[in-house]
Design goal:
The structure is a single chain. By secondary structure, the chain is α+β, with helices and mostly antiparallel strands. It has a single domain, classed as Thaumatin (Sandwich), CATH 2.60.110. The chain is built from 6 helices and 13 strands. Helix 1 runs antiparallel to helix 6. Keywords: Disulfide bond, Signal.
């Protein structure tokens, strides 16, 4: 009897570990822009895929996604997207992932695009996250951790509107004269020079240094990656947190809000799907049934 009870306890613990670890975080993605944004998501090789890789967000809308344990990948916003009425091909002026459909399905963002990068449950159990302008910029974004227990859990991002201020040689102009500049290229994309791309003889932190172009991004958005080796002021850590990712977080071109800080966590319009809680409830029910079963032995 003792061995049966021990087996039941071990099974219950195993079930709890398995089911409660299916989702490690939620991403709440909010669009505060005055225009539609189509988020795109790319999971890194060897990591679990998400339930969606692309969807539309109208102004003021939000969507909450359950994120698998130890997930790593990137998320960005696509803008000026259309679907051809004849062929059905879906394409975007900025951030297009080349899939020709609403879902990115394993395709990454064509630069220039503002990127949010995550590695969840990484070294020492910490989440690592950043907002990157290494591949250029197309719209403001912030990441705000919620409920973190360890790490610095700092809000980060780029609040400034860089499309207007973008140097002329880096600007991406819309085919519609009314839209003006819709994105800002990185110097690497614009010129292909190894010193800007941190490649070839410049492929180490010692040889690849900030340029006047990367300094343009850094001065406007001091907590975002401005070039490949900009780790010291651009990578943040947290543990056991959920994350709010916001497009166009504030109606301002200033990098900081009036109190000198990044915006605090914002309210969301969509209800959270607490899938993990449902799993845990199921595990508890299963464990109870197993305990009742043990009384038969």
């Amino acid at each position: 009897m003792a061995s049966v009870q021990t087996s039941i306890i071990l099974l219950s613990v195993s079930l709890l570990q398995i089911f409660s670890g299916v989702y490690s975080a939620t991403f709440t993605i909010i669009n505060k822009c005055s225009y539609t944004v189509w988020p795109g998501i790319l999971s890194n090789a060897g990591t679990a895929q998400l339930s969606t890789t692309g969807f539309p967000l109208q102004p003021g809308e939000s969507n909450t996604l359950d994120i698998p344990a130890s997930w790593s990948g990137r998320l960005w916003g696509r803008t000026y997207c259309t679907q051809d009425s004849t062929t059905g091909k879906f394409s975007c002026v900025t951030g297009d992932c080349g899939s020709s459909t609403l879902e990115c399905s394993g395709g990454g963002a064509a630069p220039p695009a503002t990127l949010v990068e995550f590695t969840l449950n990484g070294y020492n159990g910490l989440d690592y996250y950043d907002v990157s302008l290494v591949d250029g910029y197309n719209l403001p974004m912030t990441v705000v951790p919620q409920g973190g227990t360890e790490g610095n859990c700092t809000a980060t991002g780029c609040v400034a509107d860089l499309n207007t201020a973008c140097p002329t040689e880096l600007k991406v102009l819309s085919t519609s004269s009314s839209d003006g500049s819709v994105a800002c290229k990185s110097a690497c994309e614009a010129f292909g020079d190894p010193q800007y791309c941190c490649s070839g003889a410049y492929a180490t932190p010692a040889t690849c240094k900030p340029s006047s172009y990367s300094e343009f991004f850094k001065n406007a958005c001091p907590y975002a990656y401005s070039y490949a080796y900009d780790d010291g002021t651009s990578t943040f850590t947290c543990a056991s947190a959920d994350y709010v990712i916001t497009f166009c977080p504030v109606p301002s071109t200033s990098v900081k809000s009036t109190n000198g800080q990044f915006p605090s966590a914002v309210a969301v319009s969509a209800g959270r799907r607490d899938t993990s809680a449902n799993f845990i409830g199921g595990v508890i029910a299963a464990a109870t049934a197993l305990c009742r079963l043990s009384k038969l032995f």
